[in-house]
Amino acid sequence: MSQATASVSATTSASSAGTHTGRARWARVALRMVQVLLALFYGIASALPKLIAHPSAVESFDRIGWGSGAMYTIGALELAGAVALLIPLLQSVAAIALSALMVGAFIVQLTAFHGQNAATPLILMVPLIMIAWGRRGSNRELLGLVRQR
Q: What is the pTM of this model?
């Protein structure tokens, strides 16, 4: 009787472990898809207009009073963050850095644009924070590499 109970218990454990592994794999794949989508957004929709001095970006930065130097700098930071989101060792740090950039964008939207589109940076921060948390293991790896040097 105890042998049958052990057999059922082992089968149940193996089955639930397989389900858990499947969920974890699905979560990793979903998070990677979010990373790719955000990298495309930051690289194409956000950084590119700034880096090519699109009239809409130039107008926005002139309205803030920051000029083209800040526009190119922020565009370069966004592009670097977009690329880093796709590099496994840098993905969590990139998400944290882009979140910090979004805090700045939120403040600018509130102050210079009177709250117009202020929710956009906050909305973008949600998946960035999920990436930073979900990929936090890469921070330990990165820190280990930095400490070795």
A: 0.83
